[in-house]
Amino acid sequence: MFNRNTSAILNNICYYSTRSITEGFPTIYALSTPPGQRSAIAIIRISGQQSLHVYQSITGNLSIPKPRTAILKNIYEPSSLLANSKKKKNLIDSSLFLYFQSPNSFTGENLLEIHCHGGKAVTSAILKSIQSLNDPQRGVEIRYAGPGEFSRRAFQNNKFDLTELESINQLIEAETEIQRKCIISSFTGENNLKFEIWRQDLIKCVANLTAIIDFGEDIEMSDVDSLVNKVKAEITQIKVQIESFLNRLKKSRILKDGIKISLIGKPNAGKSSLVNCLTSNETSIVSDIPGTTRDVVDSYLDIDGYKVILTDTAGIRQNSTDIIEKMGIAKALKSIKSSDVSLLIIDISEEKEEEEEEITNAINNLIELSEAEDKRSMIILNKKDLVNDEDKMENITERLTKSFGTKYPIVPVSCITGDGIKDLTDMLTKEFKTLSEDLDESSPILMSQRVTDILQNDVLFGIESFINSVANEKDIVMATEDLNVAIDGIGKITGQAVGVDEILDFVFSKFCVGK
Ligand SMILES: Nc1nc2c(ncn2[C@@H]2O[C@H](COP(=O)(O)OP(=O)(O)OP(=O)(O)O)[C@@H](O)[C@H]2O)c(=O)[nH]1
């Protein structure tokens, strides 16, 4: 399989490689652009000791490519380039190569990118050629990468910490402008610095307590008490900071998961029309997906950069006269419970004297249910185009705004003419801002659920256990152990204390192949 220059190639590789922690690991390769799709170009990445061997074997070019400089080369089926090959050189494609030399690459290893023509046949021929170079008996181990394996190597070679790699992965998954901005600002050094400061402060506290444990007998009791109290005060301060960070994280989560809006209203009020209006005006993230029940349809929208999940609950016909009664109190409550914002759609063209009371009751009901659930609501007066009398329209809006509008926005719209829809999306955007930002208006932060879970279940748990132990005058050695749980927790977040492969498996399994 090897051509006559194999040893020269291997020598070159050894000479040009700088040692990385993952040296000796099999070389990995993968298609980094979406598989199975036709595209102008596709990118194949190869990382590891054999990257140069791959380059030389598929181009027949024995020189070392200049790092970080694009170079155009023909790619051939490697066996057709062997000195003893009776085959004609089998050209696969003409591609751009980019070579990053260890340690100055994403993975920290020698890394080669092939920018070839997109499409199934070209990419699969190149991938097959790379795989054909695997020859473990000769010490050449090359295999297809697993999910997130390039990032895992980057972590192992200290190129990035876990939160940085998770953020890059989230950036790839970002669907809206707000998500993108939020992820970019979340993985600035500021947040990582916070983790490091907390960790260092906790370590200092443990060191002080260890001094008591080691030299307790030589220290005055009053000094011991004052030292413990000093540590407790410091820990309480760290706890406040972590709780506030956690609150911001939890509040911001809605930006990633999407803000859930449910539409409530009498049959024919115009719920489906409003969904259509919003889906055609705003960017649809994915097409309509049927919900869990037959009468619920979810639409995924991008409204002013916010990811929104709009749930259209089909009206339920019952004999009651009240809008919410007609829909079914239980159903309305379920909608309100499962959403962040509820929109009550009222067909304003029906507003006659006798219906005034019905509308007021419906709004009162919605408000009562929303307040009980601590949820936000808005009232949409639909079909304003059917109210010919402008004074009448104004009167209705004024009357309702007077009664409810200070807390619950009232927006007149027409789903047919589109009038008022811009006002509605502006109002919604204001609500989204309130929902995703803290009262102090500190910017939202998007990090993985893993970070939130560890902060809650390890870091805060350890700190609270410590404070309880001290309050109950428990053994200082045990209390110190609680702090160690918190310190290890922060280490798990950034990857500093990751000794277990399971955590790495968990983190990187969420990445795509080729990342
Ligand atoms: N003139 C006018 N007609 C509207 C407007 N919005 C909806 N309609 C009409 O009202 C009727 C009912 O609208 P839908 O959107 O199906 O109402 P819905 O609330 O989804 O009805 P259900 O599915 O039965 O609950 C349709 O004929 C719509 O074209 C509007 O703003 N102006």
Structure description:
By secondary structure, the protein is α/β, with parallel strands linked by helices. The protein folds into 3 domains: 6-161, Gyrase A, domain 2 (2-Layer Sandwich); 167-253 and 448-495, tRNA modification GTPase MnmE domain 2 (Four Helix Bundle (Hemerythrin (Met), subunit A), Up-down Bundle); 258-436, P-loop containing nucleotide triphosphate hydrolases (Rossmann fold, 3-Layer(aba) Sandwich), CATH 3.40.50. Helices cover 50% and strands 17% of the residues. It has 17 helices and 13 strands. Strands 8-9-10-7-11-12-13 form a 7-stranded mixed sheet, sandwiched between helices. A 6-stranded mixed sheet has the order 3-4-5-2-1-6. A hairpin with a 2-residue loop joins strand 9 and strand 10. The chain is flat and about 95 Å long. 38% of the residues are buried. The model is unreliable at 1-18, 286-294 and 315-320 (pLDDT under 50). The protein binds guanosine-5'-triphosphate (GTP). The site of guanosine-5'-triphosphate has 17 residues, from helix 9.
